[in-house]
């Protein structure tokens, strides 16, 4: 087994996690969190700077002239009233670390300590403490601010209660779904319920759109490509005896492959517009792009896997899992640099517990040392791969159409 984390480092990670947990902050408001990170880095003697107010970026020197290995942790909390009853429960009303980002932050600080103590690094390591993951905006904002300059490869991970503590899940390819949103405004002609021939009924047109859109996933997409189109909001009408002239529909599109994502976006437009035309209603369609799907690149995934085996042992590393249809803005980094996002088992063997984003969510703190060890290990291995030029030959993941059989 790889890196053994000494008790003092573990204690500091647990203390940091509990401290962050007690003072959670929402997206773009992580001021105290950033200060806490900054002072911990300062204690370790690690040079760092703020980015966009609440982001913190640290640089560990190594391997002159080489690109850096980036490690990323998200630092923000959710608008949830905590109900765990933990002694270190949130003291900020209505705000809670219900997704484990307190753990991610303390793991990355733990990894920083392991890296600093472990001697010379083969390549520079950049630590990215990213704000606003829950809003899905933080990664892109940091990228626009230049955080990926001189980065050769990036890694990150999420604590996950679906897996027992000690398990690491490193899977190539898709790791989360894209999260796009759409609004469809239907304009017909309102009128008297008893004289439908004088109107264009926006409720009927909207309803046809809802049902027709459901056939895109069921009839146009390969069933082995997970995808979802959900219409979560449908508003129209004002009285039972009035035919509505307006309707508004809002929904979300989820897909794990970039190709399917594009297909869904195009089809929604095509299907909705055709129905509008068929019934002579005027349609406005707005698409808002969210995070793309995470697509782990093969070379970085191999390195992540080797590091995971070194830390957890082969039997405790899973290479496949049921991929979530949730979003994760780490995906944006992978549009520019190769990398891999993993799952870090954080479920104690003794309880059933509550899932992420629940007001009673908690995770097994024993996972912190495993996560930190993996981060430090993968940073060294990827640094060595950059140094030897091995990473240069790693291609970006490209989707290949599989032969029909
Ligand atoms: Ni999260």
How would you characterize the overall build of this protein?
- The protein is α/β, with parallel strands linked by helices.
- The chain is built from eight helices and 16 strands.
- The protein folds into two domains: 272 residues, Zn peptidases (Aminopeptidase, 3-Layer(aba) Sandwich), CATH 3.40.630; 109 residues, Alpha-Beta Plaits (2-Layer Sandwich).
- The strands form four sheets. The chain has an eight-stranded mixed sheet, sandwiched between helices. Strands 10-12-8-13 form a four-stranded antiparallel sheet, covered by helices on one side. A two-stranded antiparallel ribbon has the order 7-14.
- Strand 3, helix 3 and strand 4 form a beta-alpha-beta unit.
- The radius of gyration is 24 Å and the shape is elongated.
- The C terminus is likely disordered.
- Nickel (II) ion binds next to loops.
Topology diagram in text:
Layout (H helix, E strand, L loop, with lengths): L6 H16 L8 H13 L4 E4 L3 E6 L7 E7 L26 H17 L7 E6 L7 H7 L6 E14 L3 E2 L3 E2 L3 E10 L3 E2 L9 H19 L6 E10 L5 E2 L2 E10 L2 H21 L3 E7 L6 E2 L1 H15 L4 E2 L20 E9 L19 H22 L17
Parallel strand pairs: 3-4, 3-5, 5-16, 6-15
Antiparallel strand pairs: 1-2, 2-4, 6-16, 7-14, 8-12, 8-13, 9-11, 10-12
Helix pairs in contact: 1-3, 3-8, 5-6, 7-8
The structure holds nickel (II) ion (NI).
Nickel (II) ion binds next to loops.
């Amino acid at each position: 087994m790889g890196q053994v984390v000494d008790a003092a480092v573990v204690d500091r990670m647990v203390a940091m996690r509990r401290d962050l947990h007690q003072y959670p902050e929402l997206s773009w408001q992580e001021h105290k969190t950033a200060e806490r990170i900054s002072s911990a880095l300062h204690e370790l003697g690690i040079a760092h700077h703020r980015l966009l107010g609440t982001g913190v970026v640290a640089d560990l020197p190594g391997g002159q002239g080489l690109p850096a290995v980036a490690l990323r942790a998200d630092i923000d909390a959710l608008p949830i009233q905590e109900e765990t009853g933990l002694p270190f429960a949130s003291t900020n009303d209505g705000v809670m670390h219900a997704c484990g980002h307190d753990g991610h932050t303390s793991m990355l600080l733990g990894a920083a300590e392991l890296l600093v103590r472990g001697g010379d690094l083969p390549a520079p390591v950049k630590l990215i403490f990213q704000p606003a993951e829950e809003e899905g905006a933080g990664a892109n904002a940091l990228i626009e601010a230049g955080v990926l300059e001189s980065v050769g490869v990036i890694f990150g991970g999420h604590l996950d209660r679906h897996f027992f503590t000690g398990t690491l899940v490193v899977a190539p390819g898709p790791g989360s779904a894209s999260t796009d949103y759409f609004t469809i405004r239907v304009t017909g002609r309102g009128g008297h319920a008893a004289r439908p021939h004088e109107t264009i009924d926006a409720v009927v047109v909207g309803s046809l759109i809802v049902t027709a859109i459901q056939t895109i996933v069921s009839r146009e997409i390969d069933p082995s490509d997970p995808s979802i189109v959900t219409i979560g909001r449908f508003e129209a009408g004002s009285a039972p005896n009035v035919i509505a002239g307006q309707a508004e529909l809002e929904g979300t599109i989820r897909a794990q492959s970039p190709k399917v994502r594009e297909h869904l976006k195009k089809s929604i437009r095509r299907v909705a517009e055709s129905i509008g035309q068929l019934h002579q209603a005027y349609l406005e369609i707005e698409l808002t792009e969210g995070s793309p799907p995470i697509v782990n690149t093969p070379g970085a995934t191999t390195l992540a896997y080797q590091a995971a085996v070194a830390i957890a042992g082969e039997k405790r590393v899973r290479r496949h899992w049921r991929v979530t249809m949730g979003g994760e803005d780490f995906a944006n980094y992978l549009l520019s640099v190769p990398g891999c996002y993993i799952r870090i088992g954080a479920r104690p063997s003794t309880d059933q517990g509550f899932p992420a984003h629940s007001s009673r969510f908690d995770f097994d703190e024993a996972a912190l040392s495993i996560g930190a060890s993996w981060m430090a290990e993968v940073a060294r291995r990827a640094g060595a791969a950059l140094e030897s030029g091995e990473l240069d030959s790693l291609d970006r993941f490209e989707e290949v159409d599989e032969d029909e059989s």
